[in-house]
Amino acid sequence: MELSNNIFGWVDYAVFAGMLLISSGIGVYFMCKGQKTAEDVLVGGKSLGIFPVAASMMATFMSATGILGVPGEVFLFGTQLILSRLLIVMPLITFLTAYFIVPVFYTLGTCSSNEYLERRFGSRAIRAIACLLYCFAMTFSMGVALYAPAMALTQVTGLPTLVTIWGTGIICTFYTTLGGMKAVVWSDAFQSIVMVGAMIWIVVKGIIDVGGIQQVWIDNVETDRLELVDFDFSPYTRITFWNNVIGGSLAMLGSYGTNQAAIQRYLALPTLRDAQKTLWASLPMFGSVSILTLLVAMIIVSHYRDCDPIKTGRIATADQIFPLFVMDVMGNIPGIPGIFIAGVFSASLSTISSGINSVSAVILEDIIKIYRKKTLSEEQSVRLIKVVSVVFGILCMLSATIAGEFGNIVQASIMVFGLLGAPMFGTFILGLFIPWSTWIGAIGGLSSGFVFNLWMGMGQLIYRPFHVMKEKDYVDGCPELYANVTGHAFNLTAHNEFIQNQLDRTYGMA
């Protein structure tokens, strides 16, 4: 395999910087238009349209963890995780959210979703606990979202990961703090266009280079990557139809239905009907980007079929395989790596900006306004929102510096939402659908669920469970690289199974 020594050029830096400048400019623009009330900052004055909010929701929940993590997930474990969620989970949760959850929160009309818990259970304590857990969860999930594109930028530029984390985090915090919800939504809409454009270009160029879509299909079938469903009931199997659909539905329902960032977007629309239309409009957007990401993953499998970049030491983790592919295939075209990085960062910035804005909302509504004796003026509320936004932005950057310890970024994102978001989602479901439940059961379930999940998560980080990866990752297309990394050589005429056994033996000895 011919290797690339391509690196970022000045055109790439210009493209990437242009995206960041436009995003910052959107924040400055809405600041100049005026942010007079807390409602203006947190829900855009309830004046936003269906398309920008739908695009913002898609970009927020797709995020850079999906763009970068899906190719790594498919390369290591196959397509089952992505296909099941795309074909079954997303349509199901869109229907449930639009007609069973959104009407409750929209009718309530409060800017904080946690206020529902206080009204439903008659307990201010459960509102405060839910607020603190949400802030804790968002700190870690936003850290993962920021770490993913920073890692990609490091891969193509050679800049230290800490530099890319803090540089990007500061810019995102800047325009979110200045422009509020309107800046978040409109910058998300712009960044969605950048993200989709970059993905389409990469898919078209990648398919041409590997010999057509039929060749991509053949390579994925022959390497066992194309996996539709596994109905295995074993709890030791990493991904099955059951844990993917049931667990995925609960996780996504929590993200789209009761997540504070989603609730604020629904409230930013003029009517309940518009909020429901926005959910349905976001479904094809999310599906289109998911299909593009899945195609990229399958193209990468085809491209590196005979030269696994992990086993040859070109990359350290599968999460870096997408940036490597872009530099190998299109790094010699000025501007294309810049467009790719701009697309990846667009997905990340939308997620982080939404997180910053939503945490500012719950801190103001659930903590400051509740426990401060004096009533805040609108000017004081706006000032406090901006201060909280800056503080939370800094916490996200600190969290991103340790995000690499959570495993591959798709797994990390799912783990954070599962461990920290599931107890809160369960509490909302308890209130919505179990009419005889009380505040005692709600607080007990929320607290015990959080402690139990935290114990499970820490155990996974310490003991690192082993999951069987897909076999047939060959290096017979680049034996010199494998020999340089491992100090071992092999006969290229040998059967592929023998080659794979030798590689596994080498890894086992290591």
List the helices and strands and how they pair.
Blueprint (H helix, E strand, L loop, with lengths): L9 H24 L4 H6 L6 H28 L2 H29 L5 H8 L2 H34 L3 H50 L2 H10 L18 H18 L1 H8 L4 H32 L17 H10 L5 H36 L6 H23 L8 H25 L5 H25 L15 H8 L9 H14 L1
Helix pairs in contact: 1-7, 1-13, 3-6, 3-7, 3-11, 3-13, 3-15, 4-9, 4-11, 5-6, 5-15, 6-7, 6-12, 6-13, 6-14, 6-15, 6-16, 7-11, 7-13, 7-14, 8-11, 9-10, 9-15, 12-13, 13-14, 15-16
Main attributes of the structure:
single chain, 510 residues, mainly alpha, 18 helices, globular, disordered C terminus
Describe this structure in words.
By secondary structure, the protein is mainly alpha-helical. Helix content is 76%, strand content 0%. The chain has 18 helices and no strands. The protein has helices spanning 10-33, 38-43, 50-77, 80-108, 114-121, 124-157, 161-210, 213-222, 241-258, 260-267, 272-303, 321-330, 336-371, 378-400, 409-433, 439-463, 479-486, 496-509. Helix 3 packs across helix 6, helix 3 (50-77) crosses helix 7 (161-210) and helix 6 packs parallel to helix 16. The radius of gyration is 23 Å and the shape is globular. The two termini are 25 Å apart. The model is unreliable at 485-510 (pLDDT under 50).
Query: How would you classify the quaternary structure?
Result: single chain
Average pLDDT taken over every residue:
77
Biggest sheet: strands, sense, closure?
A: none
Uncertain segments are 485-510
| Total of helices | 18
